[in-house]
Amino acid sequence: MAKSGVFEGDRVMVVKAVELRKELQKLLRAIVEEDDVNLEALDRAQQMLLLLKELKLKKTADLELRRQDVIPATVPEEFKCPLSKKLMRDPVILSTGVTYDRPFIQNWLKSGKRTCPKTEQVLSHTVLIPNHLIREMITNWCKIRGIELPECKYNDEEAYSEEDQEAFISLLEKMSSTLFEQKEAAKKLRQLTKRTPSIRVLFADRENAVSQLVAPFAQPNIQDHPDLQEDIITTILNISIHDNNKKRVAETPTVIPILKNAVTSGTAQIRSNAAAALFTLCALDSNKEMIGRSGALGPLITLLDEGHDIGMKDAASAIFSMCILLENKARAVSEGAVRVIMKKIEDRMQVDELLSILAMLSTNQKAIEQMIELNAVPTLLSIIRESTCPRNKENCVAILHTLCYSNRSMWREMREEEREHRTLSQLAEDGTSRTKRKANAILERLNRAANINHSA
């Protein structure tokens, strides 16, 4: 049925073509024979030529479609995405000049890679430029073959336009302008980086963007403008959420000292956001080491000690993350972390977070010695009795296990606790697997010591 329709169309086109040629011949004869140039005849002849051209193109397309009924279409290599090996729907050009289908190259970039998949060159930037020429060629190729090419509606929140980039660059330039423009730009950047992921990506793609952002901190009177400080610190926090920014932000020479100083001084919000930024950056082990060497643990412990609710949790999170690294544990202990943590736990402040840090520090010998000096055992036992949180009980018994095996005088307190409250026996019955293991180890040691004494 479809083929007969095509053939019927062929007959109609042949008739039209014959008629057009006849009329064109008459017009040409009239133009050649007349002494004066007949403009109307010239225009009409031009129209006839255009109509003949359209008929010729349509006939070629129909023949191609008919051929496709027998021979499947082979996609030209230049129309295929180098990543998917399929016909591109939304071709875009990478900075290396290679064209890819947008969703596939975006997934490549979002995974953290910063090289061209085909050439393996390091990318100078990750701006994706639409390849309109290839897009038009693919559209025409599909049209001739009757292939439907759906409209591209990729909703990638991290994609940004050239207009976004221009506006972004303009804001960064204002950070080195007058105080008024600095404040205006900093506030705008804070808002954009909070709600627009693509702006966070722009910081990752522009090499000097972070340095430009923090330029106002080089001014001697920056302390007199807490609003400007807060906007910049909060922007650092916002952009650090993006994984590709963590290394760039931390390795910008002035950023960690700025955050360290901000934790020490400034408004409660500035100190809290600076601590939160350090915590976010600590997702990378290389950053943990760098931030630890900078001396940032001291200010974080001070913030924790001062007890501002708005900053204590952020400070605790940053300290915990940093102390995953062995050398940072020693630094934290030297900076007085054990004393501050024990004091807060005794006051029942941020118990969950601080017990986790204390359990981590208990692998350090100096931390153990300090806990013993601070008489940590009664506090830990009381938390076990009071708490309904399995994780807190687990951390407490893990610390107690380490303390008891490090100092023999602790065993007497443990025996009295077991005699009066059966605290360890209860943990051995209904605790987590780790809690049971630690509690049973202490109980076995207590029983063994009791048997030895009884025999004696």
- Kindly, what is the distance between the CA atoms of the first and last residues, rounded to a whole number of angstroms? 108 Å
The count of β-strands is 3
The proportion of strand residues reads under 5%
Mean pLDDT: 83
Number of helices: 24
Radius of gyration, in angstroms, nearest whole number: 37 Å
Helix content: 55-70%
Unreliable residue stretches: 1-9, 67-72
Structural class: mainly alpha
Assign an overall shape. Answer: elongated
The helix/strand order is HHEEHEHHHHHHHHHHHHHHHHHHHHH
Query: Strand order across the biggest sheet?
Result: 2-1-3
Largest sheet: 3 strands, antiparallel
What does it look like?
It is a single chain. Helix content is 70%, strand content 2%. The protein contains 24 helices and three strands. The radius of gyration is 37 Å and the shape is elongated. It starts with a helix and ends with a helix. Residues 1-9 and 67-72 have low confidence and may be disordered.
